[in-house]
Every structure is written in structure tokens, then in C-alpha cells.
Design goal:
Rossmann fold; six-stranded mixed β-sheet
Length: 276
């Protein structure tokens, strides 16, 4: 029952200029993006991480470095090709305003499971390889570090949205309903019973409740009525009714609306491909 922290890279020069970066080399964080990932790293300071995995893209490596800079222990960064950016083929490097005029754009919006990028991969392939990777790594982290281990995967908007859709039991055709902003943190816990999405697209708030607790219960059952959240250590997630939520974060800071500054030039393409 390890816990996965999904972190999208910070804002890049491509995000700010409205270009679909894809897998092009040389796409780096801009000044605002570097500030964003520094804040994300600070949020994880008090969480002893078992491992940090990154997409091979430079923007994700930069983001990973910011996380590792706030960890007291020495952790080696591991690069995982399966959580790399979607292969957008001939779409990458093109302005998003231009791509909006392509017939495929509407397919990406309304039926992404049918979308295949010219010269690239399908969105179903993207999801299957990313989900397989995070579930495999999660099991490996738990086997090596124990059920209370916390690890980070630094990846891209569409990749994280696809992983969250799988964890939520959503069809890929619904994944455009999920928002994943630059440098946002989402949290998933996989269990034998089901995945639990503990947080989604958060920009601020204490994450100290992720620290392993010696008295954590082994059950992964959802508690009728909701339970008291992680601070109660009685359940892995809320049952019917909602519950009190994570102990620790100030009201409104962890799951509330983000400020305009936090979302500044967050994916310029809105629900389009490549929340890259």
C-alpha cells in the first residue's frame, strides 16, 4: 500500500508560448516554472521519499532536481521511459492555435480513445504504458521499502491525467474532465481492493499527513460514513459520505481553488493535447 505522488513539471518556455512541446529536446522550465517546482519541493520536505522517478524529458529532470534538493536523505533519481511525454508525432513543435484547426483536435477533445497522432502514438497506448509503469514501480517500491513508503513520479499533463483516470475508474474518453496544472501534485494509493485518489491537482498545503505512521492499519476497506481521514489511521480512504479529509492542511489550502498566480499560463492549450 505504498503511496504515489504524481508531480507535473513546472511551466516551460513552450507552455508560455503556446507550443506543443512533445518530445522535442531543449524545452526547459522558465523562471516562473522554476519557482513553481521549488514550492512543490518545499511541500514534500517533511515527507521522507523512498524513490523519485522521472520522465526523461529535461523539464521533468529539472522538476525532479527541485524535489530532491528538499530531501534530507540522498536519493538517486531514476529515469523511466514509460512515463515520458506522449509521442505526438508531427504535431509536436507546432503552435496550439494551428493544431486547433486540425480535424483530429475534435477527436482528442471528445473521444481520445480513438486519437492516433500522425507519426506518433495513440492515446490508448500512452495510457496503457504509463499505467503499467506506475503500478509496476509502486509494487516494487512497496516490496523494497514497505507498505508505508511514499514515492514520486514526475511526468506530464496528459500522462498524469491518464493515470488518474485509470485510478478513478474513468474511461479514457472522459479524461479531459481532469485538470492537471504545471507543478501540481496529485496522490494515488494502490491497494488490493482498489486505487484511492487522495488528492488531485493541488498547488499548496501541508503534505505532512503522508509521513509513514507506525500505527497505520493494514485494512484497505473503505469505511461506511467516511472515517476521519489519514490522521485517524483507520482506513486508506473515505467511504460513502466523504469523511473529514486529510489531517493537517489548513482549510481551503489543499483542495481549494488555486489562485490565478498559481495557474498562470498553466496549460495554454486548456483541454487540448500535451499539457506538456
Amino acid at each position: 500500500m505504498a503511496t504515489l505522488v504524481l508531480l507535473r513539471h513546472g511551466r516551460t518556455t513552450a507552455n508560455a508560448s503556446g507550443v506543443l512541446a512533445g518530445r522535442r529536446p531543449g524545452v526547459l522550465l522558465d523562471d516562473h516554472g522554476r519557482d513553481q517546482v521549488s514550492r512543490a519541493g518545499e511541500r514534500l520536505t517533511d515527507v521522507p521519499l523512498a524513490a523519485v522517478y522521472s520522465s526523461p524529458m529535461e523539464r521533468c529532470r529539472e522538476t525532479s532536481a527541485a524535489v530532491l534538493a528538499h530531501q534530507g536523505a540522498s536519493i538517486a533519481l531514476r529515469v523511466e521511459d514509460a512515463i515520458s511525454e506522449c509521442d505526438y508525432g508531427s504535431w509536436q513543435g507546432r503552435p496550439l492555435e494551428e493544431l486547433r484547426k486540425e480535424p483530429l483536435w475534435k477527436v482528442v477533445q471528445s473521444q481520445p480513445s480513438a486519437a492516433v497522432f500522425p507519426g506518433g502514438e495513440s492515446m490508448t497506448t500512452m495510457q496503457s504504458r504509463a499505467v503499467e509503469a506506475v503500478r509496476r514501480i509502486d509494487a516494487e517500491v512497496e516490496a523494497e521499502h514497505g507498505a508505508s513508503a511514499v514515492w514520486v513520479a514526475v511526468s506530464h499533463g496528459d500522462i498524469i491525467k491518464a493515470v488518474l483516470a485509470d485510478a478513478l475508474g474513468m474511461h479514457l474518453d472522459l479524461f479531459q474532465r481532469i485538470q492537471v496544472d504545471p507543478a501540481s501534485i496529485s496522490i494515488v494509493r494502490y491497494t488490493e481492493a482498489r486505487p484511492y485518489v487522495l488528492a488531485q491537482n493541488t498547488h499548496a498545503g501541508d503534505l505532512g499527513w503522508l509521513r509513514p505512521a507506525a500505527d497505520a492499519a493494514a485494512t484497505t476497506d473503505a469505511v461506511p460514513g467516511g472515517g476521519a481521514g489519514p490522521g485517524d489511521r483507520q482506513s486508506a480512504a473515505d467511504g460513502p459520505g466523504g469523511g473529514a479529509g486529510p489531517a493537517g492542511p489548513p482549510a481551503g489550502s489543499e483542495g481549494g481553488a488555486a489562485t490565478r498566480d498559481e495557474l498562470d499560463d498553466g496549460p495554454a492549450e486548456l483541454a487540448g493535447p500535451g499539457r506538456s
